[in-house]
Amino acid sequence: MGQRSVRANRTIFERESELAAVDEALGELTGLRRGGAERFDRSRGALLAFAGRAGIGKTTLLAEVRRRATALGCTVLSARGGEQEQRVAFHVARQLLQPQLAGSGETDLRASLGSWYDIVGPALGLCAPTGGAPPDQQGLRDGLDWVLTHLAVLRAPMVLVLDDAHWADPESLGWLAAFAPRAEQLPLLVVVAYRPDELPDHAESFKGLPGRAGGRPIDLEPLSAAAVARLVREAVGAHADDAFCRECWAVTGGNPFESVELIAKVRDRGVTPTEPGAHLLRDLAAAVKGSGLVARLERLGTSTVRFAWACAVLGTEIHPLLAAAVAGLGQEEAADAADALRGARILTGAETLEFVHPLIATAVYRAIQPGVRVALHGQAAWCVVNDGQGPSAAARHLLETHPDGDSWVVQQLRAAAEETLRAGAPDAARSYLARALREPPPFEDRAAVLYELGSASLLTEPATTVNHLRAALEEPIADAALRQHIVYRLSQVLAHSDRLAEASDTLAREIRVTDDARVRLRMLAEQFMWDAFRADEPDHPSRSRRLTALADRLGGRDLTERYVIGLRAWDAVLRGEPAHVVLHHAERALAGGLGWAEPDRGFEVPVLVALSFMYADRPGRTEELFTAGIADFERQGWRGAHLSFAYTLLGYVRYRRGRLSEAEDFVRAGLRLAERVGPGTPAHWYAVGILIEVLLARGRITEAARTGEQYSFRAPFPAAVVFPDAQTVHGELLLARGRTKEAAEELSAAGRRLEPRGIRNPAWCPWQLHLARVEAHETPDRAQATAVEAVARARQFGTPSAIGQALRTAAEVSSGADRLKYLEESVAHLERSPAGYELACALVSLGTELRRTGHPGDAAEHLYRGLEAAVQCAADALAETARDELAAAGLRPRRLHSTATDTLTSTERTAATLAAAGHTEPEIAHHLHLDEPTITHLLSAALRKLGTDHTGLKAALSTQDPTPGTPP
């Protein structure tokens, strides 16, 4: 016979294994207190999922979970998806987190949420959205992750219970599905229940569970005949005979909800529970659901039916007075209707009403005639606005109404869309605006609605955004500012969709018809920017001359002027003008401020200005600007493509400084973020290209080739200019793999593409340097000429790193005295540069040449220095080459005075130090502003280098500085 536990007069039968799994999870969660201090081991939490069809007992089981968790002193967060609330963004997230935070005043709430206040506060309904740009969806999820992680640690042990997950809103469900597998790392038990055939695709993680659930959810089975018999006899008496009980089981199929409701009908009707009365059961069972339930409801009277309809339209957490208003009933009449529905086991509750079971709510809702249902939703929209709940609460009802040209409806939907978009739910906002467009809006508002609709689709459906914005421009627009915003947004989305020529043409057309000089300058600045990224720009030299003339006239008095000056600095980098010219314009662009998250502006120009300092051998200044830029992104909640670019390019800065291990960490973090944004995006091209460069520098050629294959890093290359130049990196990779003929073709093609555009700076794109190495195999004279030309261009730019790198290549393709002269000059320049890896390469090459030409003493000095520099850079293959050269000279490598901890990058060291202090991976991720997969990778690398596990981490770090530096 089944295990039994009573809650709210309900008996749970035949759920022994399910409750055992719950008890095991709760035991592990709550049995880990040590000496009164609430510290928890890494495997403390769990994820449990229960799956089953409607009425199988999921809600009853989860109620028992809540009861047991509360009895054990757990903090319980509880939520339930609703069939009518699926379109309400963050409905489930608010149910879970609002009760834990809403009681605090604004000051305490800001203290609790810290930098996440303006990002997650609007999504959770804790504060109004700010006037800035909305967070991206990944940033919002990261914020919700932080809030739940923080609560789980602060109020441990914690149990999160989600019923009817299949009806959760997409924003909440997507977040929870991604977060739930991490519960095992926290003092958190996540328990979900859902109907498996209705669970959306984006919640697949609930179907494949880690840990104790055996890799799959726990399926709930129907009750056996014996269990139904016990239910019958418990309710109507032990005299119920076997035939009657078996018929109860047969007509319900063992469904717990239907069984309980049938038995209640038997008791209410006074049916004798013996075999002669068994023939009545099928008719009674039919009254429990579907048409039978509807017929039973109709017998309760017109007012009661209308009240039930109003409740079904409102969904869950129904306030009686609001339901009365929707139903058009007086207060006393509504109270009588609620009493009747409670008596009929259709509704339950007093101050807040809900349906006894979702099956009943669904049956009642579907029984409403379509015309009446539409009218009730319209009435509900008006009532919730009148009740002070705002346009977002009304919007889901307005979605169910028919278009009727009502400006009030358009007004509410636009207001709801703005609020929802700024809270971080663009999909919901888009559905509201699409409905507003069908209303339709007043003629004079149509362009504005199309613009808002396009803006809501910007991050998720760029092609749709283009269509909406172009349609908006075809409308009569009286407001000049609106037209300008549409043009800016359209050019932006075209550019980000790799349609740079169209972006430039859009701005060019508008520039010709714009009378306002400042607006025209802004549009011209935007056009200059997108043209700078066009790989197929037809007349780059002409644009460069026009840009130079314009920038020299501007003083930088506003953001637009500073953008033009910043683009002038970048153009000087590409063309290889003297570095002091680059630095002059870069400082001018920054003089009045150049934020990375300005409203209605891209982040491209601030990034280009920051990188201008890097190419001009000021990487410290670049890192300062990137640190500030990343802080801007995180304040806005931009943790998708924006943060991917920032991490990737910061990795590139580290690469050019010769800090290859740190560079790899940052680039891999950027690549992981790029993969969340989507394959084939510019963020992918940047990350993969830089990662290949780093791997080649470290000597991991096979891994670099595998990375290129994995991400299809080959032609066709993107229409947008990326850096490092993708085609040049591909040629370098081919050269490293020994495929010289293909490398020559690729690098020559890169030259033919860049030369006509006047892009001739080898510091920005070293295609000539790699081509010279290729040519040296077949045509050494041509190789020397190519290298000498690159040296001349590097000298024109004037940075020690560019000159030193070009001279090293010239030495590589030369011989005799020229080779030695080039190498000595290369080392002299690189010693004055921040290019640590290039210096290591030049030192090893010079030492090798000196050994071969009979200068063993000088050779040893340079090889020893080169070896130490290569080790510090983590250039493993180069270090091995230096050791081989020392051995060939009959010398042993010097013992480097270092410990295992010295091999850690600063990021690895910080992560390891925090882990040794007892911080969890989510906490470390938050501290370092990195995602958890990156933290896992860093800790694994640190443990491997230290030769220990987590238990020995503190001892291994005992000689290390306790406050190591952290990356931005």
TrEMBL record:
Pfam families reported for this sequence: AAA_16 (PF13191)
Transmembrane segments: none
Domain Orc1-like AAA ATPase as annotated: residue spans: 42-191
Keyword annotations: ATP-binding, Nucleotide-binding
Domain of life of the native organism: Bacteria
Listed InterPro entries: AAA_16, P-loop_NTPase, Sig_transdc_resp-reg_C-effctor, TPR-like_helical_dom_sf, WH-like_DNA-bd_sf
Record-given protein name: AAA family ATPase
Taxonomic source organism: Streptomyces spinosisporus
